[in-house]
Amino acid sequence: MLFFVDTANLDHIREASELGILDGVTTNPSLMAKEGVSGEKNILKHYRDICAIVGEGRDVSAEVIATDFKGMVEEGKRLADLHENIVVKVPMIREGVKAIAYFTDAGIRTNCTLVFSAGQALLAAKAGATYLSPFIGRIDDIGWDGMALIKEIAEIYNNSGFDTAILAASIRSPLHIIEAAKAGADVVTCPLSAILGLLNHPLTDIGLEKFLEDHRKANG
Ligand code: G3P
């Protein structure tokens, strides 16, 4: 399973990259706004900066703002031209499905976002989406079972032989990451804090302290 970091924060992306476990980055308009990045010129520069940090072969999802087919295609092409790492992120709406099919034919990789049902997952895969982003946390937020959706989509994609990668998004905790891996996600995208949370175990800390103490005793 691949690890993407879900942020537009350059320090967090750098930190995840330095950890040596980073496979890619996802952003969205809210995450860009959170970093104070606005205006087309600055937004495009920020995507280029992200691509430079992650290095070759690591996908960076950049989301279109347009919601009509023509606008999505124009914007998506501009984004894809920025850097070979760029994957065009397109919302799961009627015009978005059309745009994904267009980008697929044009050899431009896509990430279909704001996915909340198996039916939407089927449509995105039929259109040839490279990645599918079901929003786990937001489904949990309304009292439904986000991880059950990942399992359902994994079953459908396996049965149908779709190549679309399941990118579990709106991941909020280390447990979400583990559950997504068990449920059949190909990728998780999450805040750096959720990834770092996987590190922690009290027995590791206790064990290390004991090893070092024994070494100190034996070596003076
Ligand atoms: O990748 C989608 C993600 O950014 C949404 O996460 O926590 O806002 O639901 P959240």
Task: Give a quick precis of the structure.
It contains eleven helices and eight strands.
Structural features, described:
With 220 residues, this protein is of the alpha/beta class. The chain has one domain: TIM Barrel (Alpha-Beta Barrel). 55% of the residues lie in helices and 17% in strands. The protein contains 11 helices and 8 strands. An 8-stranded parallel barrel has the order 1-2-3-4-5-6-7-8, surrounded by 7 helices. Helix 1 packs parallel to helix 3 (40-54) and helix 6 runs parallel beside helix 8. The longest helix is centred in the last third of the chain and has 18 residues, at 202-219. 39% of the residues are buried. Bound molecules: SN-glycerol-3-phosphate. SN-glycerol-3-phosphate (G3P) is lined by residues 6, 26, 28, 133, 135, 137-138, 169-170, 172, 189.
Spell out the blueprint of helices and strands.
Layout: E1 2-6, H1 10-19, E2 24-26, H2 29-34, H3 40-54, E3 59-63, H4 69-82, E4 86-91, H5 94-105, E5 110-115, H6 118-126, E6 131-134, H7 136-141, H8 146-160, E7 165-168, H9 174-183, E8 187-190, H10 192-197, H11 202-219
Parallel strand pairs: 1-2, 1-8, 2-3, 3-4, 4-5, 5-6, 6-7, 7-8
Helix pairs in contact: 1-3, 4-5, 6-8, 8-9
SSE class: alpha/beta
- Succession of helices and strands: EHEHHEHEHEHEHHEHEHH
The CATH superfamily turns out to be: Aldolase class I
Which strand order does the major sheet show? Answer: 1-2-3-4-5-6-7-8
Provide the gyration radius in Å.
19 Å
